[in-house]
Write a structure and sequence with these properties.
The structure is a single chain. Strands 2-1-3-4-5-6-7 form a 7-stranded mixed β-sheet. It is an alpha/beta fold. It is built from 14 helices and 7 strands. It is elongated, with a radius of gyration of 25 Å.
């Protein structure tokens, strides 16, 4: 049963003509959803051949025109372009006089709130930031996925009801995000969705290397259960060698990754450190087990005594092969590489950019 709440009739916006600037993955889907709610798409702009094909497939019969012409024809304009392109687009449209007083100008960027639309506001437009927290494919399946999808909504207080009503008409659930919290909100979505795709893709590649014929079939039930458990229980859902404090197992993992997929080592270590910190904070990881584990992580995945003494697990000198793995010791060790649980190295966990413009994030499927 759907949990989407329908707005009172008095809160519904009037039937509007709808235009799309940027026929990437998001814009046509939102316009098609608004069409189902009774609004009328009248114009769309797109640069690439792919965007033009997408617009024709999802909005058949709607003419492709330049951006300024979209604004001339539409009461409600969706600006669905990459985050970095949005400020320049808004300034350009307002500067050329394309924005009309009373026109609803909506952007779908997660990073920005309503303030990026100030040039349009000064021209008399009504600014709304409506960001769907969903991954987009650029096909009609996206319209179905909008049912129950949360939207990050930011708008002037007097436009709040109109913004929320539009989201509900698209089948979504409005979630109010303050202007100053938009970058943090977007970073959270990128961390959860964009990085998840990278982790899953790496896991599938490693399973194929290990001889698994259908890694997707193997991972599907596991990851589905892990996601469900995490959403229900948070940190209490943590399992695995890091949460258990199995330092030797973690060292063995890193040694294998160095040998077969060295590009994954930095990510594994960063996530293991973050997992260890959370497991310690919640009491899942016992301090007496954490010391050896954190020593392994601080030494780049090598057990602490081998890292300190330069010996491999047989007692002989460790030798670095061309892959930089060194002597691989997979036993838990007595040597201490860190100062107890306070020697935690969390470096390298915050590097990636979070503008998420490709829509895998479910944050933007913008025109490129």
């Amino acid at each position: 049963m759907s949990t989407v709440h329908q707005p009172d009739l008095k809160d519904r916006p009037a039937r509007l003509t709808v235009g799309v600037v940027g026929a990437g993955r998001v814009g046509p889907a939102l316009a098609a959803s608004l069409q189902l709610a009774g609004h009328r798409p009248v114009a769309v702009s797109g640069v690439s051949e792919a965007s033009r094909r997408r617009a024709e497939a999802m909005l058949p019969g709607v003419p492709l025109v330049p951006p300024a012409e979209v604004l001339r024809r539409a009461d409600l304009v969706l600006l669905t372009v990459p985050d970095d392109a949005l400020p320049g687009l808004v300034a350009g449209l307002a500067g050329t006089g394309a924005v009309r007083p009373g026109q609803l100008i909506v952007h779908t960027s997660g990073r920005y709130g309503a303030r990026v639309l100030d040039p349009a506001l000064r021209a008399g437009a009504l600014p709304l930031a409506l960001h769907p927290a969903m991954t987009f494919t650029g096909t009609l399946v996206d319209v179905q996925r909008l049912a129950g999808c949360s939207f990050g909504v930011t708008a002037p207080e007097q436009l709040r009801l109109a913004a929320e009503a539009l989201v509900i008409e698209m089948g979504g659930e409005p979630e109010w995000i303050s202007e100053q919290d938009r970058p943090l909100y977007h970073a959270a979505l990128a961390l959860g969705a964009n990085h998840l795709v990278t982790l899953v893709a790496q896991a599938m590649e490693l399973l194929r290397t290990a001889g698994v014929e259908a890694p997707d079939r193997m991972l599907g039930p596991l990851l589905g259960a892990a996601l469900d458990n995490a959403l229900r229980s948070g940190d209490a859902a943590l399992t695995g060698p890091v949460a258990r404090g199995d330092a030797g197992t973690v060292a063995a993992h890193v040694a294998e990754l160095r040998a077969h997929a060295p590009q994954t080592v930095a990510g594994y270590l960063a996530m293991a450190r973050a997992t260890a910190d959370r497991a310690l904070a919640t009491g899942l990881l016992k301090p007496e087990l954490a010391e050896d584990l954190l020593g392994v992580l601080a030494d780049g995945g090598r057990p602490a005594d081998a890292a300190r003494n330069g010996t491999d697990s047989t007692g002989g000198p460790a030798t670095d092969g061309p892959d930089g793995t060194g002597g691989r010791d997979t036993d838990a060790t007595d040597g201490r590489g860190t100062d107890g649980i306070d020697g935690r190295d969390t470096e390298g966990t915050d590097g990636p950019g979070t503008d998420g413009t490709d829509g895998t994030t479910g944050t933007e499927g913008n025109d490129r």
